[in-house]
Write a structure and sequence with these properties.
The protein is globular. With 388 residues, the chain is mostly helical. It has three domains: 124 residues, no CATH class; 85 residues, Flagellar motor switch protein FliG, alpha-alpha superhelical domain (Annexin V, domain 1), CATH 1.10.220.30; 99 residues, Annexin V, domain 1 (Orthogonal Bundle), CATH 1.10.220. The N terminus is likely disordered. Helix content is 66%, strand content 0%.
Length: 388
């Protein structure tokens, strides 16, 4: 069966499924590789041809690529960034502009899309897996006995308990657990990597933090059945949490967040292709990809070199109205005497026109973005680069 046939079959034959099976795909990328193989090749020639762009099709004839784009927005930036590297260049160039144009996804449409992709994923699992094991056991021992044996052998389906949280943002996990009992919070945190669990605990207010830490310290072994029920309940809750965020969307911001999580080579290649087809979209994405947070995480040595070539007044406009972490980043990279002079000049020059402040900020950020794109600037936390 070709990729086109597999993908089309998912839309014509799939029935609503339990959403959990999709979210529990392995986190090592193999599951995403199988999924990406189901996305069709072929289609537009020479990039995007305006007369046949998917986003312009009637709603009842919505293209496969727009459905994929909506699915990527629904599952979030971290998960989407795992799938995109497995796609062909042609597929990426059709899907990315669709992501940028998405403004909303209704709850009804979310349910349909999840069911469709869940069905597609089932078809792409041609060998092995829990489903295959269950079918074999049912034929050999009957349904009841097969389920008992499967629960003992593979109690958490396709992965470890709470595996779907391994790549989730710390804040997302915190909000997911915030309304749960202290016992549930402790159980979930005990299954996360220690570094991630600590980061989530640090987001809690003092009372909650104290209760959770005490519960963790006194925790006794928990039965697999209890963990399984909590795992299932929280996974369903996490899917609802993602869906609720999907109703009103800034597609370009979502796309920028996805690109940030990809390696720098892929990010650059996609941006270059987009800029050739739609220069305005390319420029807009570049501005969204590089923000004040990236300045804060930029290499100090580069910041120091940049500031040496700026007048004190320019630095005053740069730091004006900025959050404390940005101001500290800039002022900590100049000498003590120059820092005092800049702060003194800031007091003298106030009030500053916002247009002048924005102009100085945009120029500084643009210079850093160009340096990053050419490999001259290192940014902590971008593109999973490793440094020693």
């Amino acid at each position: 069966m070709t990729k086109d046939e597999l993908f089309k079959n998912a839309y014509t034959k799939s029935q609503p499924q339990d959403q959990k099976s999709f979210g529990q795909e392995p986190s090592d990328g193999e599951g995403f590789k199988k999924f990406s193989d189901a996305i069709p090749d072929g289609g537009f020639q020479n990039g995007f041809q305006k007369e046949t762009r998917p986003s312009e099709l009637p709603k009842d004839k919505e293209s496969v690529y727009r459905r994929v784009a909506k699915f990527f927005v629904m599952i979030g930036e971290d998960e989407a960034a795992k799938i995109i590297p497995h796609l062909s260049e042609e597929q990426i160039l059709k899907i990315v502009p669709e992501i940028a144009s998405i403004r909303s996804i209704s709850k009804e449409e979310q349910s349909v899309i999840l069911a469709e992709f869940n069905g597609l994923l089932k078809q792409s699992r041609e060998a092995g897996g829990v489903t295959t094991a269950r079918e074999m056991l049912v034929k050999a021992y009957g349904e009841k006995r097969a389920e008992e044996m499967l629960q003992k052998a593979v109690p958490f389906g396709n992965g470890k308990p709470f595996d779907y949280l391994s790549d989730a943002d710390n804040e997302r996990i915190f909000y997911l657990l915030r309304d749960e009992s202290t016992g549930v919070q402790a159980i979930v945190l005990s299954h996360l990597e220690p570094k991630k669990a600590a980061a989530v605990i640090n987001l809690m207010e003092a009372g909650m933090k104290k209760d959770v830490v005490l519960h963790l310290a006194k925790m006794e072994p928990v039965s697999p059945d209890v963990i399984r029920r909590i795992d299932k309940s929280l996974h369903e809750k996490s899917l609802r949490q993602t869906s609720e965020k999907s109703e009103n969307i800034d597609g370009r911001n979502a796309l920028a967040e996805i690109l940030k999580r990809m390696n720098s080579g892929t990010e650059k290649e996609i941006l270059n292709h987009l800029s050739e087809e739609d220069p305005h979209l390319g420029d807009d994405l570049r501005s969204r990809l590089f923000t004040i947070d990236d300045v804060v995480n930029s290499d100090d040595r580069f910041i120091q070199e940049k500031l040496r070539n700026m007048a004190d007044a320019e630095v005053v406009y740069l730091i004006a109205g900025k959050p404390d972490n940005f101001r500290h980043k800039i002022l900590d990279n100049v000498s003590i005497n120059r820092k005092a002079q800049i702060l003194s000049d800031e007091d003298l020059l106030k009030p500053l026109r916002k247009t002048d402040v924005d102009k100085a900020t945009n120029a500084f950020v643009s210079d850093l973005r160009r340096a990053y794109e050419t490999g001259k600037l290192r940014i902590i936390g971008r593109n999973d680069e490793q440094y020693v």
